[in-house]
Amino acid sequence: MKVLVLNGPNLNRLGSREPLIYGSTTHADLAEMCVAEGKELGFEVEVRQTNHEGEMVGWLHEAADASIPVVLNGAAWTHYSIALRDACSQLTAPLVEVHISNIHQREEFRHHSVISAVANGVIAGLGVEGYLLALRWLALKK
Ligand code: DQA
Questions:
Q1: 116 is annotated as contributing to ligand binding
Q2: Complex ipTM
Q3: I need a labelling partner for 140 at 20 to 30 A (CA). Which of 1, 2, 86, 129 fits?
Q4: What pTM was computed for the model?
């Protein structure tokens, strides 16, 4: 069974981007961890990252059409993109929203997510391990 792990803007900079907040794991490391965890759980995990909102919306449509579960870190789009939210609303398999940092401990503008109301659940503040926990939950539900 396929699972898409979708990462939004600036997450390609993991490892060098504000390491005190996001840690030292690079996006390539993160992708490797997710693929390995997925293998253990019987998933074929594909990790993608984009800085282009339309590309992300297209990937969500692809997941909706093929009923693929999604682990989504919408990054900054989380807080204001109704286009992303509307694409998430169309998903036909579970959606887990993940944030590396605890968005509720940070600036006020990060406290609200437009995605959370249409996600099955949200993991925030557990570092990159949050993605692995999301995959484990999806495995419990399959
Ligand atoms: C983030 C939190 C967002 O507020 C921020 O814009 C990101 C990353 C996280 O993983 O903690 O880019 O989604």
A1: no
A2: 0.99
A3: 86
A4: 0.98
